[in-house]
Specification:
heterodimer, A: 2 domains, 0% strand, globular, B: mainly alpha, MetI-like fold, two-stranded antiparallel sheet, 70% helix, MetI-like_sf (chain A), Phosphate transport system permease protein PstA (chain A)
Chain lengths: 294, 323
């Protein structure tokens, strides 16, 4: 065969690959949205899920997803940013630092179900917290920590060295430089990373099966004391999230309209995650613009 | 009016506070509770680092210990567990613990998914970096990001409502099995492999490509003889990362694979993986029972494989830096 012909065939195959990739994305998105969106209405979002009957909604699951996300972020952001700051600025070049880097790498590549099993073993069984929001949030923290650490470290390393040197040159200490100069400069990058990881946490399910549980008590949205059994704010109650609900209605549920519930939930989940992605890009660019004045 | 440190000349108040703000004293225990203490900042940062270590080490130790219980206390032979095919730990009289079909299922799904996803991913990465240099990256990055963002249960749901019925209609099987598992997991690892492969291809120096083109090589010859060999360790890393993700994937596979603990003889037969058996039974076995311990042992196999994938990636990246 002539070399030119081979070249042309190979090029077409490569273009075909890219085409397949785009087709898969469009198919998935189109299928989930078009199949699910007609089940999503105000009734669906504001009705509680039903165990036996047709016509259940996802009110509690939606609330649980957001609440769990907030609690997880309360744990993850300080720890992750501290870890990232350590690796970018404080870490001496020694064995301990290398070990911490390995730990971050290991945590990042462990399957989420392994993190869920650890959460079950330690928080649910050993600490007797049971299936609870707290157990789930700590499992998600372990799952999300390496992402925030890396994002913070990368964002800090991207800050021009001159800014840091200027601050240090004025006699400002390391921590004060970090707090007032480096972290603000790295803020847009860190924020973008945090919102993107929030989307990941929002859709996570395997880590939550055995930590936050497959059920939710009947939430009483007029009762906000965090210590009451049915309070939406109680962190020691079990909490089924939206993504766990999609799995549960298909795998262990017995309701007849599971296709409607699962498709509607999936469409809502994908829309929320796409919004997270858009927000991450938009906010990052906006803050960058405000800060640099460009 | 306050005196400065030397006590020589009085300084205006404003100036001295500027001075205090800017010139930090060396860290001292006394200043720990002050707002701007250097020492307190250092402590906060070190705590963050320490918690990363504690989480990783305790996770590993707890799961290893729990996973070994079935061998230490329930008298199950590890060799039997790994290589025999009689998985029936729920049997009241004669429970048997041969987990080979489950382990085989995990490897089969991982290998098949990698075989499907690798050519498409590397093809797309080549498209982004070599064919459409100007706009390929801009156009396909968002596609990759959307695919990464879609939660695994949604992939599972698509498998369950679209792929499984399709296979059932076009063959004489029930639809559940290795084939839908392979397709679903293959789709899930596409973005992982593509984005790392694209980064790897981007980092190939332009001089190499230009030299090849200057010798009169066609684009394909340049790709096949220069670019791909130069990027090989990084491309392998991308594939191994994808395989690690495939191996640990739980719910999406569980929804489509059929969860039968026998060795499948064709792609259309149902199978099971480590993650699917754990998700199915972990919630409804009694804590402390041999069945429950056997599930933790499956978890230990999963953890061990994850560590092996991490070691392979480390080995590959070391090779990359050496060359």
């Amino acid at each position: 065969m002539r070399i030119q012909t081979v070249n042309r065939i190979a090029t077409s195959i490569i273009i075909l690959c890219a085409g397949i990739m785009v087709t898969i994305m469009l198919t998935i998105l189109g299928y989930v949205l078009f199949k699910g969106i007609r089940f999503v209405d105000w009734h669906f979002i504001t009705t509680v899920a039903s165990t036996f009957n047709v016509g259940g909604g996802i009110k509690d699951q939606l609330w649980n997803s957001f609440y769990l996300l907030v609690i997880t972020m309360v744990f993850t952001i300080p720890l992750g940013v501290a870890g990232g700051v350590y690796l970018a600025e404080y870490a001496p070049d020694n064995r301990i630092t290398a070990f911490i880097r390995s730990c971050v790498e290991i945590l990042a590549s462990l399957p989420s179900i392994v993190v869920g099993l650890f959460g079950m073993l330690v928080f649910v069984n050993t600490f007797h917290w049971g299936y609870s929001i707290l157990s789930g949030a700590i499992a998600l923290t372990i799952f999300n920590l390496p992402v925030i650490v890396r994002v913070t470290e990368d964002a800090l390393r991207a800050v021009p060295q001159e800014i840091k040197e200027a601050s240090m040159g004025l006699g400002v200490g390391q921590w004060y430089t970090m707090k007032k100069v480096l972290l603000p400069a790295a803020f847009p990058g860190i924020l973008t990373g945090i919102i993107l990881s929030a989307g990941r946490v929002f859709g996570e399910s395997a880590a939550l099966l055995f930590t936050a549980g497959l059920t939710s008590p009947d939430l009483d949205f007029t009762h906000w004391s965090p210590f009451s059994e049915n309070s939406p704010l109680n962190i020691f109650r079990s909490a089924e999230t939206l993504s766990v609900h999609i799995w549960a209605v298909n795998s262990v549920g017995i309701i007849k309209d599971k296709v409607a519930v699962a498709s509607g939930s999936a469409a809502l989940l994908v829309i929320i995650i796409l919004l997270f992605n858009l927000a991450a890009r938009g906010l990052g660019a906006l803050i960058q613009k405000r800060m640099t004045g460009k | 009016m306050t005196l400065n440190k030397e006590g020589m000349t009085p300084l205006p108040i404003e100036q001295s506070s500027t001075r205090e703000r800017l010139i930090k004293k060396s860290p001292s225990v006394k200043g720990f509770f002050k707002r701007e203490s250097e020492l307190r900042g250092k402590w906060l940062i070190y705590c963050g680092a320490l918690i990363i270590i504690i989480a990783t080490v305790s996770l590993t130790l707890f799961l290893v210990w729990q996973g070994l219980r079935v061998f230490l206390f329930d008298g199950v032979n590890p060799i039997h567990f790994l290589f025999r095919s009689d998985w029936n730990p729920g049997d009241a009289k004669h429970p048997t613990y041969g987990a080979f079909p489950i382990i085989f299922g995990s490897f089969a799904v991982t290998a098949l998914a990698a075989i499907v996803a690798t050519p498409i991913s590397i093809g797309t990465a080549l498209f982004m970096t070599e064919i459409a240099k100007k706009w390929g990256d801009k156009a396909l990055r968002p596609v990759i990001e959307i695919l990464v963002g879609i939660p695994s249960v949604v992939y599972g749901l698509i498998g369950l409502t679209l792929i499984v019925p399709f296979i059932a209609n076009h063959s004489d099987s029930i639809g559940y099995g290795l084939l839908p598992g392979m397709i679903v997991v293959g789709m899930m690892i596409l973005p992982t492999i593509t984005s790392i492969a694209a980064d790897a291809l981007h980092s190939i120096p332009n001089e190499l490509k230009n030299a090849s083109y200057a010798l009169g090589a066609t684009r394909w010859q340049t790709i096949a003889k220069v670019i791909l060999p130069a990027a090989l360790p990084s491309l392998l890393t991308a594939v191994v990362l994808g395989m690690a993700r495939a191996f640990g994937e739980a719910l999406a596979v569980q929804m489509v694979i059929g969860n039968v603990t026998t060795i499948p003889h064709s792609l259309l037969e149902p199978a099971s993986t480590l993650t699917t058996i754990i998700t199915l039974h972990m919630g409804n076995t009694t804590t402390g029972s041999p069945f429950n311990h056997a599930l933790w042992a499956l978890g230990l196999v999963l953890l061990t494989m994850s560590y092996i994938f991490i070691l392979i990636i480390r080995y590959l990246s070391r090779r990359r830096t050496l060359s």
